[in-house]
Amino acid sequence: MSGDGDIRWGTPAARWVIGATVLGSGIAFLDGTIVNVALRAIGQDLDTGVSGLQWTVDAYLVTLTAFLLFGGALGDRFGRRRMFIAGLASFTVASVACGLAPDAAVLAIARAVQGAAGALLVPGSLAIIGSSFHDADRGRAIGAWSGLAGIAGAVGPFLGGWLIDTFSWRWVFFINVPLAVIAVAITLRHVPESRANTNQPIDGWGAFLAALGLTTICWALIESDNGVGAAQVVSGLVGVGAVVAFLVVESRSSHPMLPLRLFRNRTFSGTNGTTLAVYAALGAALFMVVLELQIALGYSALEAGSSLVPVTFVMVFLSSRSGALAQRIGPRLQMTVGPLIIAAGLLMFTRIAPGEHYVTAVLPAALVFGLGLTCTVAPLTSTVLASVDDGELGVASGVNNAAARLAGLLAVAVLPAVVGFDTTLSGAVLTGKVAVALRVSAALCVIGGAISWLTVEVKHEVVPVRPADLLLPCHDPGRLQKSA
User: Fold this and answer.
1) In whole angstroms, how far apart are CA 238 and each of 59, 184, 198, 212, 392?
2) Model pTM greater than 0.70?
3) Which is nearest to 288 in space by CA: 111, 391, 146, 439?
4) 31-41: average pLDDT
5) Residue 231 near residue 221, CB atoms below 8 Å
6) Whole-angstrom distance, CA of residue 149 vs CA of residue 368
7) Which of 139, 274, 288, 411 is 20 to 30 Å from the Cα of 82, by its Cα?
8) Nearest to 23 by CA among 136, 161, 183, 135
9) Strand, coil or helix: 281
10) Which residues pair with 2 in a beta bridge?
11) pLDDT tens-digit profile of 342-364?
12) 133: helix, strand or coil
């Protein structure tokens, strides 16, 4: 088969392509929700403290963030199916290494490989759909993919909790293997190859400097919890230098991974500023709250994973309505009020304490938190896309996605150390530490709302987006925009 965009909706070929891409991207989404539930079990089994748990999360986010745009470009240049299969194979090997990890260091390295593989899977799945389906059916295909892939994120906490409680945290990673094998088999047999008609060079230096900068800065921040020494200082300086070098390279490159000219647009810059503030709050809060529920309230892994599922349900049922409202009234109001509602939900989570009940302490906060996310995420992503030209939609979506990942990894690296979060603390003391972190996170959300109020135009054009657009960059924007 050739990747000429001739697959029609409802045919067997369409079902095979949807199935392969849902399985491939689904394992990446699954890891995004399932690992937080496993953190306490990992810490106990590998005898690691907070820094080891931070690396379990951040090692994945560092490479995913650094290589997200790069991975999409590799698919465009060398073949989307080929890179998708390479990502599946790499993710499988890394998942096995995670499951067999004898200590936290090996686990962190394997998680970093998972993140790099995810950078091939995440943009690749949507690009395959965009290049394979006929113009008239591409929108339906993306909608079906986004709905099915979103189920993976919702199922993750249930599945992860059950695997941990029934078997071991290691099965959180082993479960990826059969899913990836099935995805590879379907892809090889049923998914057409496609690539962009371009000879543009790949921005390898940009990807390398981004990864070096993020890794060394995160290492310095996480390890400074044990005291700031020469190693932390040198690592931090190397990281800052790499980031500066990255910006210089991107500003001078004819084919930059990150086109800095986009940030001259006030709305684009402001919206990404809101993304950084809000997603930093989310990353740090969710990292600590799931652990808090297990340590302070004695929840099992399954109970902790299930406790925040109402957030997902609220978003699933109300996101389309939120997007429609933003189209009618403009995104500014929702992007200002939404972060304030998120902040209220985070402050409500501070009521968690030993002896408190789920229905009174956790559920109301989860519902308010989910409502705030619903108000914020759809118009935020729509505004990013509406602020650039049609030919830059894929890059804009990728930059916003990377900003969200970057915010989360930096927050997880910094905030636990700042508030003195430690899994060895008693439940009462731990909840006090988490409450401080949640107040800081709420303040970040307020800042995000203020940025939106000051930078987003009152009636700025809004591009309709589906759930897929809230998660992934698309690297064939000229084709994918036809489905919007």
Assistant:
1) 18, 39, 34, 8, 32
2) yes
3) 439
4) 83
5) no
6) 24
7) 139
8) 183
9) helix
10) 193
11) 999 999 999 998 888 899 999 99
12) strand
